[in-house]
Automatic annotation (TrEMBL):
Residue intervals of the Glycosyltransferase RgtA/B/C/D-like domain: 109-239
GO aspect biological process, one term: lipopolysaccharide biosynthetic process
Places the protein is found: Cell membrane
UniProtKB keywords: Cell membrane, Glycosyltransferase, Membrane, Transferase, Transmembrane, Transmembrane helix
A GO cellular component annotation in the UniProt record: plasma membrane
InterPro entries named among the record's database cross-references: LipidA_mod_glycosyltrf_83, RgtA/B/C-like
Ranges annotated as spanning the membrane: 12-29, 77-95, 107-128, 134-151, 158-178, 198-218, 225-243, 301-325, 346-366, 372-388, 400-419
Keyword Transmembrane: yes
Name under which the protein is recorded: Glycosyltransferase RgtA/B/C/D-like domain-containing protein
GO molecular function, one term: pentosyltransferase activity
Length: 570
């Protein structure tokens, strides 16, 4: 593999890509106007606000005593890693004047997410440069900078961008280890980086399979027992030590020699797993019942996570890589040739292996949200850049290449338009205050945000609210209660597609509720539509919207949901 050196001819382009990517991730960062319309953000912000600094290192390391442990400050259910929250707490403590303001914590978390994601872009450049060439590395960085899902997730205070950064850094350090040189250095760095990724989110543990494969390949290539074992010992020691320091809450006791996981944390994970299945009436799980394994996440990644035409090149890069290694290794029945691959081909093979491993592992799960595939987006773009370089760059003029790059920019810039205008729920709230008489009874769907939001000194206390338990199992009792509520409701408020976009897709589970929504949208009930607001990504200059209603719920429901209001007919 190639050693890294940034030649002058690539300095300006990579700096421009870095700056543009940072702008894309910071633009419209206060997209919800301080209303905290992302439920995961709300929860993480509350936890970050309530944890506090321990008086000693020993109390920090003791999960039973540490005030940085959510379990000790009133949050008995917590499945995230604590490292990103501690980092946000520390930065907030340094820069805020009003001592951990709720709004400031969220904004600090969003800036941190954007910063780490741009850091991921730089490591993507390093990986592609080491595996292929500087030119492919440049296009890899460009493609990642233009990838819409990372742009969107950079606008949210969640743990994923931190986890992905350290996971991608771990891959880069694994490549150094595969080189067979500086193995002690790379093993230590890999251990620290992997430990921080797990301390950010436990699902980073998937990458342990790739690390194990790397150790096996190095041993089979070199047949040197001592360096391989030493590297493995260093990795285990530093990853374990880093995890204990970055998130002691994951362990039972403060003793370094007691590696047992915290039983409460394990119980939380089991509880979450029990809720995420087709037999549970857990509201967020309903949307996944009718989805197909593999195909559903694949289409969402291509059409929305990357968008067209970049998503097409991602698919072509994946297919071309599969074909290359199939022709090289599998068809000739020469599996041992893996050990004799040129270093750049070995890195390419590990890229492909990680992408396929995580995509298939997550794609066959019940919950297949785009965010769970975020850790392989950096590697998807490298495969896309490799294919783009081989098929377009080497065979076309500069004008054609520039033309493709301009086309690639259209979808991410269109997506950024949602952050250039007030949030759809904010605009709907303004409409409610202007058009619905005070004292009116408004409905609110259970498990969704109620409207109106507070705006311009006005409060939703001006109205009465009926919360409809639409996610409850369909029983006569449920609908007797809802029908009584509907008799009092003046306006039906659907503040997103969270309910009506999921329940009607499983009529066998919710026959009465599905029929209710069908009749409502068909105009068969005593309500008429008086307000319907979308906030689609919009192509600039042409002002052409890109409807994304067919995407998964989480892609639209936080930062650009569709809001519909129905008025009772007199």
């Amino acid at each position: 593999m190639k050693s890294f050196s940034l030649t002058k001819s690539f300095q300006i382009p990579i700096i421009l890509i870095f700056l543009i990517s940072m702008i894309f991730r910071l633009y419209g960062l206060n997209w919800d106007g301080g209303h905290h319309l992302h439920p995961d953000e709300r929860f993480l912000t509350m936890v970050t606000q309530d944890i506090y600094w321990p008086r000693s290192v020993s109390s920090y390391l003791n999960p039973a005593l540490s005030p940085l442990n959510p379990y000790n400050v009133g949050y008995p259910f917590f499945v995230y890693g604590m490292f990103p929250l501690i980092l946000v707490k520390f930065i907030s403590d340094l820069i805020t004047l009003d001592h951990f303001s709720y709004n400031n914590i969220t904004l600090v978390g969003r800036v941190l997410a954007a910063t780490f994601d741009v850091g991921t872009l730089l490591v993507v450049y390093l990986i592609a440069r080491r595996t292929f060439s500087s030119r492919i590395a440049l296009f890899s960085a460009l493609f990642y900078g233009l990838s819409v899902l990372p742009i969107q997730l950079s606008h949210f205070f969640t743990v994923d961008p931190v986890m992905v950064f350290f996971l991608v850094l771990s891959f880069f350090l694994l490549l150094i280890f595969l080189d067979g040189r500086r193995q002690c250095f790379s093993s230590i760095g890999l251990g620290i980086s992997f430990g921080l990724s797990v301390a950010s989110k436990i699902s980073a543990g998937y990458f342990l399979a790739i690390i194990g494969l790397g150790w096996l390949v190095v041993f089979l290539r070199t047949r040197k027992v001592l360096p391989t074992v030493l590297g493995a010992v260093l990795f285990v020691f530093f990853s374990y030590s880093t995890l204990r320091l970055a998130d002691p809450r994951m362990f039972t006791s403060p003793s370094f020699f007691d590696p047992r996981p915290n039983p409460q944390f394990l119980a939380n994970l089991r509880e979450l797993q029990a809720l995420n299945n087709r037999f549970a009436f857990f509201p967020p799980s309903i949307q996944w019942i009718p989805t197909n394994p593999i195909w559903f996440p694949f289409m969402n990644i291509v059409l929305w996570g990357f968008g067209l035409p970049l998503g097409i090149f991602v698919v072509l890069g994946l297919v071309a890589s599969l074909r290359f290694f199939t022709m090289t290794i599998l068809l000739p029945r020469r599996i041992p040739r893996i050990l004799k691959l040129w270093p750049e081909h070995l890195g390419h093979l590990f890229l492909l292996t990680w992408v396929l491993f995580l995509f298939i592992s997550q794609g066959i799960q019940f919950v297949k949200t785009l965010r769970y595939f975020y850790p392989i987006y950096p590697f998807f773009v490298i495969l896309a850049a490799w294919f783009f370089d081989n098929t377009v760059v080497r065979r076309s003029s500069h004008i054609v290449v520039i033309g493709f790059c301009v086309i690639f920019v259209i979808y991410p810039v269109s997506f950024l338009s949602i952050y250039s205008r007030p949030h759809s729920r904010v605009m709907a709230s303004e409409w409610i205050y202007a058009n619905i008489p005070t004292g009116s009874v408004l409905s609110c769907e259970h498990w969704d945000d109620c409207l109106p939001l507070g705006a311009s000194g006005r409060s939703n206390a001006l109205y009465q609210t009926e919360v409809l338990p639409l996610f409850d199992p369909d029983t006569p009792e449920k609908w007797r209660k809802i029908n009584r509520q509907l008799e009092n409701v003046d306006y039906l408020i659907l503040s997103s597609n969270r309910v009506w976009g999921s329940i009607p897709k499983v009529p066998e589970k919710f026959p009465l509720t599905s029929q209710f929504y069908q009749d409502l949208f068909a105009g068969k009930l005593y309500f008429k539509k008086v307000f319907d607001l979308t906030s689609y990504p919009t192509i600039p200059l042409l002002n052409i919207p890109i409807p994304d209603d067919s995407s998964e719920e989480a892609f639209t429901v936080y930062d650009h949901p569709r809001v519909i209001i129905f008025q009772r007919m007199q």
